[in-house]
């Protein structure tokens, strides 16, 4: 790609130096003799932000000229990772910037290190949203990402005595050079109160919502730049009190009450909820959802009307993608805006609404499907509850006409009235959308046969699949520069905008000298990670060992504890003098546990206890090392994936909707050991069975096992090796004699084992033995590693976004460069 003049790409060293110093002097008021590293970081970020905004403005002009159909991506979470390095890459000025700073005796890497990432998400879902913004910008999709500007993001994880401790994330402490506040883009959001129903002079029903409080949401814009391409914005809403509302009228006595009220209303965007906490009664969470949805819809409608258009064709101009059910109250809110505020007839409003929204489901876990109590929702959003009831009654009438059974009708209802009545948000999102998609082929199939089966039978054409993808520029070009350079030297730069071009490397897979270069790069990445791990944990790994890595949120279905059972089996083999076939291995874990998730927190303690035992035992620590790397984040991820030899993707089949870490590992040349779950299935298809270590039950076998009545204790009785490992958990040897510490894990596995660890244990051990055997042939390993990378084309988020454009959004892309 070549750039038009003035496009903001290909800046010269002098231009960069000049802008940087101007930002330092006039933007921050600092001079080099007193400037801190953070000042240098802020100055460079401010300079880069200007160039990114330039691309954004140019894109806007282009989109306006083309009058294109646009996309609003609604997500309660984003995990963008550090912006600076990525923006330099996308402006193609990394090298020039490095030289410009070197002229000033400054080190770019040290400056990049300063950035604190916005942790505005929990994990996969939030990171996916950010990968999608990257690809929408790169491909030129006229789009905007809406979300919440949490003042405190996901907690920082520290370890205390081997247990997780949570520390609040003050990510805005040193300021945020990437965002621009837009005080003129602000909307009022109502809560509570009651509704009035009246007939107007034309005998038309008019509903009026009289709220009991109102708050303001103000836009904060962060530009997101595509690769040598367009810029889009991520628009995050921050809550503030509406001062005139309370302050003006009150006398001194009420002043403090008014201040309190102001503070209470500003708490809406204070903090991100960690997931899988028990949501019931979490009123603030529902307020967050409605708050950002309401601001976003008002903003989109403002843009639509600004262009002189009618609301009747809103859906022809806008697609709104719901990232899970978190923003699904939008279905009721758009109906309210169209019917109550713009006086549209119900049927027409419903037509517009259903053609506007599309819904992405990210989970089949029954406990994770969102429900809101009717009582709570009615108190907070009385008009929305009425609208949901109206949608539901029309929908159920339709089903009755089509002779659905009462049983089916009650299963499909938006209201669950077994027990405390609640709203099934996935049903609301499904009924209110024209497309519903899962996030991998397997997950989309299961969605249709399980959670949304009745709906899939009613509307088969509504259901589709879009397999997830990852921002390969961030997760390969930026985080693994060694490998990226080697690839570019061999096949040029095409892969940066078309990942499937990596197939052009095929002819090198068997080339011994290429394999050697490949291995050297991996080794250097492992050395870097080794240094970082030593600095953070005090544990020194040996980079010549196999790096076997399990990083993701801690959850029983992801089975971190299955990995622990394997490690203990190796430990016991070594202790019993039967460990000669074991390849020296460093096991690296990382991931946060939800603060209220008892088992997940105990699994972290188990990992750190196993690490202490093994790392301090000279009989085994030449062959095995174990480390828990605290506070896993995008920033850490960028150092971890490039250093991995083996990627652990060992969830129970049927539980991981897709996974995206699995893709990032393979993209960086790790081999996978995994189950047939989520996108693992498609990864294995792409890289070839021979280059993937498969184990465990299939989804169907899991279902059969459970149906037949599963008795984990019987497996324990019959497998001597497993029994020895299990009993070791409660021997006290991991816990200074305390035999009770890991009893909850032990009991859970022997009595219920809901995620079938014991059932899959033997198969996992055998697959791991195969891993250790393969590792001994380093040429063979390198060859398989190469074959993994070159077959990753499908898993770029560019491909995912193209799929959304064609199948769901029906939008054409418009590139400015
Ligand atoms: C729920 C209640 C209260 C607060 C937060 C939550 C919540 C937040 C995030 C619940 C779930 C959340 O995310 C789920 C998630 O990350 N799912 C993952 O999505 C990825 C992207 O599609 C998939 O790759 C993973 O398989 C899936 O687990």
Describe what you observe in this structure:
Its EC number is 2.4.1.1. By secondary structure, the chain is an alpha/beta fold. It is built from 33 helices and 22 strands. It has a nine-stranded mixed sheet, with helices on both faces. Strands 19-18-17-20-21-22 form a six-stranded parallel sheet, with helices on both faces. A three-stranded antiparallel sheet has the order 12-14-13. Bound molecules: N-[(biphenyl-4-yloxy)acetyl]-beta-D-glucopyranosylamine (26M).
Write the layout of secondary structure elements.
Blueprint: H1 13-27, H2 37-66, E1 70-74, H3 84-91, H4 94-103, H5 108-113, H6 124-139, E2 143-148, E3 156-160, E4 163-167, E5 180-191, E6 194-199, E7 205-210, E8 213-225, E9 231-241, H7 243-246, H8 252-266, H9 283-306, H10 314-317, E10 318-323, H11 330-341, H12 346-356, E11 357-360, E12 371-373, H13 374-380, H14 382-401, H15 406-412, E13 415-416, E14 422-424, H16 425-431, E15 435-438, H17 441-449, H18 453-458, E16 463-465, H19 472-478, H20 481-491, H21 512-537, E17 546-551, H22 560-575, E18 585-590, H23 598-615, E19 624-628, H24 634-640, E20 646-649, H25 661-667, E21 671-674, H26 680-687, E22 692-694, H27 699-707, H28 712-718, H29 720-729, H30 743-751, H31 757-775, H32 778-790, H33 797-809
Parallel strand pairs: 1-2, 1-10, 2-9, 10-11, 11-15, 15-16, 17-18, 17-20, 18-19, 20-21, 21-22
Antiparallel strand pairs: 3-4, 5-8, 6-7, 8-9, 12-14, 13-14
The structure holds N-[(biphenyl-4-yloxy)acetyl]-beta-D-glucopyranosylamine (26M).
Protein name: Alpha-1,4 glucan phosphorylase
Keywords: Carbohydrate metabolism, Glycogen metabolism, Glycosyltransferase, Pyridoxal phosphate, Transferase
Family: Belongs to the glycogen phosphorylase family.
